[in-house]
Amino acid sequence: MASSVAEHPVSIEDDVPTIYAISVIAFIVGDVLHEGVGHALLAFLTGAKSGVLSTVAWSSAFDSRLVAAGGTLVNLAAGIVFWVALRALPEASAQLRFFLLLSSAFNLFDATGYFFFSGVTDFGDWAAVIAGVHPHWLWRAGLVVFGIAAYYGAVLVVGYAIVRYVGVPKNDVKRQRKLTVLPYISAIVVSGVAGLLNPVGIQLVWQSALPATAGANCGLLWMRHYIPKGTRPEQTGPIERNYTWVGMAVVFALLFIFVLGRGIKLHR
């Protein structure tokens, strides 16, 4: 009997609006960290006088390899911090643990995926970092190889965390899909809508916003196949309806789309 129960777990019902809300907030946090902290703030700290910040880009007359790399490096650091926080807060609510998980996932996937993306396409932040460096083909190949290895590592740690710290058993496929596919869709929708309003041009939506979001976060769709064997839930419990998270998501989304999406001019 015990074996039968373990093989066929009773799936916990999570609240869909709250899942969407937490997903939107987590994605927006990751995007603002990338563009606002990794690019804009670092640019001001290293010499920029002014610039335009939007959801898809930081645009300024001042540029450097460090500023180009900053977005990815900040996402990488943030992803690790969120993962450590998730591990350190086993008694936190299911909603908070899910937020920390998604924040870690969006940041880690964006950071590690960017290496691969720039290496393959010779476009984006890391293409700017290695521009003019020779032999160029070798640096691009290095980005591709490192990106694959780093992204695989991110998939392993996020997959481990969704089982261990969010409490979704490996064999509960229905719940795994619900807690990964809905965030993936949320990120694409919010990124795409906000990107349409950006001041740089519609081409950035197709060249940067959507590829970065849909491509980088695709690990959410298949990471359940790479969860380390023997991983067991440490916590259980559903993600219940929480109007605080839902309300915050509405406010965050409106500001992200209609304020940051249109671009904000910043000056020192």
Placed side by side, the strands forming the largest sheet appear as 2-1-3
Overall structural domain count? 1
**Beta-strand segment tally:** 3
- Radius of gyration from the CA trace? 19 Å
Give the biggest beta sheet: 3 strands, antiparallel
End-to-end distance:
67 Å
List the uncertain runs: 1-6
Please write out the topology.
Elements (H helix, E strand, L loop, with lengths): L1 H6 L8 H30 L4 E4 L4 E2 L5 H24 L5 H28 L3 H5 L6 H29 L8 H23 L7 H14 L2 H4 L20 H18 L3 E4 L1
Antiparallel strand pairs: 1-2, 1-3
Helix pairs in contact: 2-3, 2-4, 2-7, 2-10, 3-4, 4-6, 4-8, 7-8, 7-10
Features of this protein?
globular; 268 residues; single chain
What does this structure look like?
This protein has one domain (11-267). The chain contains 10 helices and 3 strands; from the N terminus they run H-H-E-E-H-H-H-H-H-H-H-H-E. The protein has helices spanning 2-7, 16-45, 65-88, 94-121, 125-129, 136-164, 173-195, 203-216, 219-222, 243-260; strands at 50-53, 58-59, 264-267. Strands 2-1-3 form a 3-stranded antiparallel beta sheet. Helix 7 (173-195) runs parallel beside helix 10 (243-260). The chain is globular and about 55 Å long. The N and C termini lie far apart (67 Å).
